[in-house]
Amino acid sequence: APSRMWGLWSLLLLWGLVTPCQGLLEKVGTLARIDKDELGKAIQNSLVGGPILQNVLGTVTSVNQGLLGSGGLLGGGGLLSYGGVFGVVEELSGLKIEELTLPKVSLKLLPGFGVQLSLHTKVGLHGSGPLGGLLQLAAEVNVSSRVALGVSSRGTPILVLKRCSTLLGHISLLSGLLPTPLFGVVEQTLFKVLPGLLCPMVDSVLGVVNELLGTALSLVPLGALGSVEFTLATLPLISNQYIELDINPIVKSVAGDVIDFPKPPKPIKVPPKEDHTSQVVVPLYLFNTVFGLLQTNGALDIDITPELVPSNVPLTTTDLAALVPEALGKLPPGQQLLLSMRVKEAPSFTLQNGKATISIPANVHVLSYHLKGTPEALFELNAVLTLNAQLAPSATKLHLSLSLERLSVKLASSFAHAFDAARLEEWLSHVVRAAYVPKLNVDLDVGIPLPKVLNVNFANAALEIIENAVVLTVAS
Lipid-binding serum glycoprotein C-terminal domain location, by residue (predicted)? Predict the structure, then answer.
């Protein structure tokens, strides 16, 4: 345990020397900049939705005799008990905390350290007064804590409570009678007791938030293709307005092999983040690796027959004879065609000037066949398909929808006479749009995964395509 504590401290100390990057993403990782408003929301939601407040009340009310009285925290010879500083404590009995108002959260980011977190709440106390009858009091309390941001043993960002104190505000007597000396007793009692009761609430809040921070670094399935594992590439950084996480996406095949591609030669110039917004920067590298996974899985290959295209798309030797008659040799008209497309090299994705495009190199074997006969090879083409990619974010990923922009072909080989393959480009474009592009869009339903950080939803984010990256920005 001491070595583990030293490890955490060394990370925190090292992190304290680091300042946020100045707009350059040196690595190829996914960059997440989470606004302090989102952290505040996560803390507030943990108090609203979880059992934290009820757990605190349960802990308090489990003391049967309450805070004061013969069996209470100050009974039995305590500093403020009968015989102590005040001899009037026994006139009160069973004073308990029975209400805890939902705290208001306020926080301030501390660059190089973590977070200054304040929870402002009201505590309701019920008991019996010195003259019998119900006694009800309410006290305003500010729980102030300093929280460091570091890295857990699992390699996830983690918030660690370093210091916690409570400041007692105005105490109101709602019902019953309480002489002034007893009022002072109650005040001093709360001053001593509340830190031990309410500071564990901060620890519980941090536990919930740390679970949310941990989900950023997880395994995301890519359908039947494989998965993306998000890991923390460097220590978290913190500025006055946001926490920055440099997240390394590792793309793996179903077999567990890492799909790796060359890194971009230049760092990505990340645009500055405006206040009250959160950002995720998705690098070109992630697009290329996902398409590399599609290619190695054979998902980019297709055999196109007349059944796969509408009747208005020509796919017979008659149609081909009208374009390149010399390619058919002595083949009779009216035979059906089979186009066998194989992608043997990785596609190349481009992100620049507000546009996303992908270039797919394909070998196209053109064959003719009878329904009961063996296909007969006619010629082979080397094709390059350039497709536009429309990008749309959801809560968990970037969705891609492709459309063919242009297609160029060269003749690789022919079993009849050589010919100018450029005459086939318009015809082949019709076939590709009808049969190949829809298949690609189905396969791309897996999308490009986004890391999930503090439940920030990027579904309605503004999307900007910069050089070698896509930037998603959402208002907090």
Answer: 274-474
Q: What is the pTM of this model?
A: 0.81
pLDDT in tens, 304-355: 999 899 988 889 888 888 899 888 877 777 889 999 999 999 999 999 989 9
Ordered by where they begin, the domains of the chain are 37-214 (3.15.10.10), 259-475 (3.15.20.10)
